[in-house]
Amino acid sequence: MKFTINREEFLKAILTSGKVASPSPEDPILATLKLEVFEDRLEIIGSNGEISIKSIVPKFKDDKEILRDIKVGSILVNSKILTDVIRNLEDNEITFPVEDNALVRIQNNRFSYNLNVIRGEEYRDIDFDESGIRVELTARDLIDAVNQTAFSASIKERAVLTCLNIESNGNKVYFTATDGARLSKKDITIEEELPKFSINVNAKIFSEGIKTITTEEKVILFISDRNLVLKLDNIVILFTLTVGDYPNTKNIIPHNFFYKLETQANELLKVLTRVVLFSGERANIVKLTMSDSEVVVSSKSLQVGDASEKLSLYQYTGERLEISFNVKYVSEAIRSLKDETIVLSFMGEMKPFTVTSKNDDSVIQLITPVRTY
Amino acid sequence: MKFTINREEFLKAILTSGKVASPSPEDPILATLKLEVFEDRLEIIGSNGEISIKSIVPKFKDDKEILRDIKVGSILVNSKILTDVIRNLEDNEITFPVEDNALVRIQNNRFSYNLNVIRGEEYRDIDFDESGIRVELTARDLIDAVNQTAFSASIKERAVLTCLNIESNGNKVYFTATDGARLSKKDITIEEELPKFSINVNAKIFSEGIKTITTEEKVILFISDRNLVLKLDNIVILFTLTVGDYPNTKNIIPHNFFYKLETQANELLKVLTRVVLFSGERANIVKLTMSDSEVVVSSKSLQVGDASEKLSLYQYTGERLEISFNVKYVSEAIRSLKDETIVLSFMGEMKPFTVTSKNDDSVIQLITPVRTY
């Protein structure tokens, strides 16, 4: 095995796949990257067992030859050490010859680096196959959908509540996450009718994984029984699915509200940030008191003192209502909407309420209040 | 007690003193800041028992009134909560009236914040007195001296080796730090003759503490039996001294060398960074092989492989010499010198060697080598 490669492109690919390379207790070899060179490309695979990333360096990029002098083959090399060596070298091009499947000899007239490697066959089998149900999305839509929902997934439980649920219905794809106290749901409309599917993918791992996506691209999802494969231009990401029935959330989201507060995201966020500082031992809880004449956010604690602040810009319809909630939940919900005008809709003091954007009904954030003291 | 203050200046002073405010097991009240307002200034004191910072807000700054409407008095208020409240408010000016020594009421027509406070008398006595031996230094000299020495102090031991030793001799002030394997020494020449002193101050705490200093200022040191007080324009910092005899380091530093390598700091640092990646199980150790014809840095390990790299720019005088050392020690020593041309001077393979600047003999870095394998 041998190849000569543009150092910068090589490093970029190593960093992309290396992000997930880390040894698991069952498979210490996952500390390595698998480098496999074909006649027309280099593939670099990194994995931690739950997420695997394959980065592809083609022979040409923008008509410039970035990979040449190829002798096909595959080897494994420690991810961290390879990254550090390639990052610190100063040459523009690196020749990477493997001797006896055991050693890479990188050298010029000033230095000589001999890096131990392992035969490529020792790596675990990772199936990046493009099979199963095919869904094409814009990268922007996918990233938004994940950012607007994944934060509501549970971080404590191990089972399906730590997952983002992705399901199809007609020509819509729904993204849902809930930890029991709050729920986020987003839908994306696509052109063709989709086959039925409902899959669970760990929300934290999926959020991290899609950070590899740059927003100009299209993304193709391949959904099979065990895996979700995301295919980008020169990157393929494989997520292992979590088995289990996701709770039925369709009937949880209310539709008839008796109280409605329309207000400015920016002002409400700032007021919440200040007033919550006084919540003291009742961590993160504030009270919202709404009536025709004023909307007040307040909190109170024995330790710290008390605070109250009025909103200056709002429209409120409904009777007077007092409701208390966790500021973290409401702030994250507001921020996810990325809209300046937002709507909080209530059914009553102890009923879940929604936080939505005034101009976009594809996202809904549902939050359970806490008892007012 | 009452005052009206420019919010930005107030926040700056709170942040400066708040940096060290944190409760100690013996004194939980150190989680608070002491705010004491006089006819002509506000003083804010924070402390963790080992370091105390007093920030002063005068009535006027650049002819602008930043503090007014004063009723003298003192209170204690939780540092973290006060910081967060003042940081998040949007008014340019804040009125801070204390009621019954128990409550600060900050309000306008839109909000009302009532912050619990404690009587100022509950705070521990901290003696910022300007007494003892007086040494005046430029801030630049003090900062350089600490940055060029403190990193060599031990981080493991509890006693004097974790300290920076500061001592006088004639019209020189010496800064020394050592962990037993390396030693850093810097001298500053001042104009007048100084009384004899030798004090130990925790190196890590002192390094952190002087980050408050902006480089335009003069610094006056007041050295007493128990404390070192640093006086700046509107900040006074008190360090508690560590009791104990600092080791006599005068006879440790060699003066006659048989081998001398003059080279470029930047190139040597880069070569060390790359070659050390191959040190594997012999963490951080590389070998330097010097002769008239070439200077080679190399390392080798069973895990990773081996590497060797030649320096391109150097002057070497002496017989052929092989010496192995910890890259962290040598790199930190080189960086501390802030000079492009540096000199490594050796007495023999197993004798301590020095790293010095070609153009500045006020700093000396001494390093013990390790056995070459």
Low-confidence stretches of chain A: none
Task: Name the biggest interface.
Answer: A-B, 30 and 30 residues
Structural Rg of chain A: 26 Å
Judging from the principal axes of the Cα atoms, what is the shape of chain A?
elongated
Please count the helical segments of chain A: 6
Q: What's the oligomerization state?
A: homodimer
Structural class of chain A: alpha+beta
* Strand order in space, largest sheet of chain A: 12-8-2-3-4-20-19-18-13
Beta-strand content estimate of chain A: 35-45%
Instruction: Describe the main β-sheet of chain A briefly.
Output: 9 strands, antiparallel
Helix content of chain A: 10-25%
Distance between the termini of chain A: 70 Å
Number of strands of chain A: 29
Describe this structure in words.
The structure is a homodimer of 373-residue chains. Chain A is α+β, with helices and mostly antiparallel strands. The first copy, chain A, contains six helices and 29 strands. Chain A has helices at 7-18, 79-88, 139-147, 203-209, 265-275, 327-337; strands at residues 2-6, 32-37, 41-47, 51-58, 60-61, 64-65, 67-71, 73-78, 93-99, 103-107, 111-116, 118-119, 133-138, 163-169, 172-178, 182-189, 198-202, 218-223, 227-231, 235-240, 259-264, 285-290, 295-301, 305-310, 314-317, 321-326, 341-346, 353-357, 363-367. Chain A has a nine-stranded antiparallel sheet. A nine-stranded antiparallel sheet of chain A has the order 17-14-15-16-29-28-27-21-25. Chain A has a five-stranded antiparallel sheet with strand order 7-1-9-10-11. In chain A, a hairpin with a 3-residue loop joins strand 23 (295-301) and strand 24. Chain A is elongated, with a radius of gyration of 26 Å. The N and C termini of chain A lie far apart (70 Å). The mean pLDDT of chain A is 94. The interface between A and B is medium-sized, with 30 and 30 residues. Strand 11 of chain A pairs antiparallel with strand 24 of chain B, so a sheet runs across the interface.
